[in-house]
Amino acid sequence: MRQSQYFLKTSKTAPADDVTVNAKLLEQAGFVEKLMAGVYSYSPLGLRVLRKIEDIIRQEMNAVGGQELLMPMLHPKAIWQKTGGWKKIDVLFKLKSRTEKDFALGQSEEEVVTPLVMKRINSYKDLPVAVYQIHWKFRDELRSKSGILRGVEFLMKDMYSFHESQEDFEKYYEIVKKAYLKIYQRLGLTAKVTEGSGGSFTQKISYEFMVLTDAGEDDILYCDVCEYCVNVEIAKQKAGENCPKCEKGKLNRAKASEVGNVFDLGQKYGKDFDLGFTDQNGEKKYPIMGCYGLGLTRLMGVIVEKFNDEKGIIWPKSVAPFLVHLLALKAAEKETDKIYQDLLAAGVEVLYDDREVSAGVKFADSDLIGIPYRVVVSERTLEKAAVEVKKRSENEAQLINITKLTDAIK
Ligand code: ATP
Ligand code: MG
Question: Which domain holds residue 337?
Answer without folding.
Answer: 322-409
